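so my prof wants the structure for this chain in the tokens format not the other one, which i didnt know existed until like an hour ago. anyway here's the sequence
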Amino acid sequence: MQKPSSKSRRAPTQGALGVRDRRAALALILGVGLLLGLGLGTRDLWAPDEPRYGAIAEELRSFRQGPSGLLLLHLNGRPYTQKPPLYFWLAALAGLPSDRVDELAARLPSALAGIGCVGLTALIGRWLLGHAGAALLAAGLLATSFRFVWSARRVQLDVLLTFFELVAITLFLWLELRRGGVEEARAHPGALVGLHAALGAGAMVKGPVAWLPLLVFAAYLAWEGRLPAFRKLLPGWSGLLCVGPVLLWITSAVALAPAGFAESAVIENLIERFFAGSSHARPLYYYAYQLPLDFLPWTVLLPAALPVVWSWTRSERPGCERPSAGPDTEGSRLASQTRSAGRFLLVWIGIPLLFFSLSAGKRGLYLLPIFPALALVGVVAGTGLRREKEHWNDRRAARLARAGLGVALVELALFVLILPQLHGEKSPRPVAVQAASGLGPGEPIGVYAMRPIEGGIAYYGDHPVHSLETPGNLCDFLASGGQRVILRTRHLERLAAPMQLLEITRLRGGRRSLSIAGPAPTESTPAPSTPQSREACAADDPARR
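here's what i got, hopefully its the right format
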């Protein structure tokens, strides 16, 4: 296919916003600020991820590990291999004014990134949909989709990753929609610097998965018949910004870490997680049911919208007669722009969906970066934007806006009024406070066979936490003078006698029942570290189950 003429392209502007659209944009900004920010720090960090990430950021802010701790993250004094450091740097920075990474500081990077995602979605929507009102509504759909708003109010790395990917996508479209298109990208080095810096920052949040937009760009250009133009996006220095930061970080961390860090950080968390499903293994069809649930309530718009957007990719906008004039008529430009917009939206959704479906490890969070595209597609059906003569249906758009406002109010009530009532079940604070009660400064708390809550105990308990993965570890902990152990009640029932453990208090109920125990005040039974006690409780070893 021939490279499109520069005359068939348009600059990424749509003129000044009207008074009505400016008011709608202001209302959207205020509404999203309230939805993502109101009561953000009033709810405890919920297990397992939030308190763990909060504990890592607080350990970084406190400078407990010295200068090396800025590059080599730590959790409970041990190197943390699971994630790059950018989110934790930002959370630690937010915690400096209060001298602690509290709940607000821990969640602030995610909430601010969420607001940025909504703004960028509105900008991209104005370019791709050609209608300011529809773009603002699409941004509102994103802000109120359940998975997005839930994640943006949590200590969640994926919202920050989505923001950086959106920055890269915005700059790509800015280059593509200018006269000359991506083929003239080298004439705009500032945009290329920003694009690759955003991808590099995304990699510092969650690793190489942040480079997926490059596959999206390549697939879109291939569909347009212009794949050679992809090289214009990759000047020789681009790797320094895109790949360099994460390589520099992991090289520094490996140099500072004990042996085995590289294998755990790279092989386990990148290769095995993708190919072997070492974490969150799910079937191939997982997203066929998970994605519709995550994008609720706006999933209902997608069945009607996707066929319309698909039809955009074929020839001209539905309802628009084929232009009879030459290639430079307004009709042909509209058809070209509509084809490109439809193709980009579908590729933006399809490439990550295919990539993560092929991955053995899957979570609903992984597809958060395609939610802006889903919102843009959904608004097509929600507003009747496919109608060429009217551009959109005002009545349907008004109904959709009212529905979005209703959803936002329900979600806000959920976050501010209802969820705090569940602290007893979801927050590790009560467990950590009870376990720390009566301990002297610096005395450790043992956590037996419950690695997911260790970060929460460290964050709220303000005591060192010892990870006890086997009965032998528990024996050694008690023999060294440990006075508090947190374990499942069903484990305590088997370990109490051989380990000389006495239950101090019990929390929660049913199979989730937890016990806090300590050494029984008796000298008539064998010491916990004897071979007999180890053998007596070996049947409860989690590694053997």
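also thought this was worth mentioning. The two ends are 60 Å apart (CA to CA).
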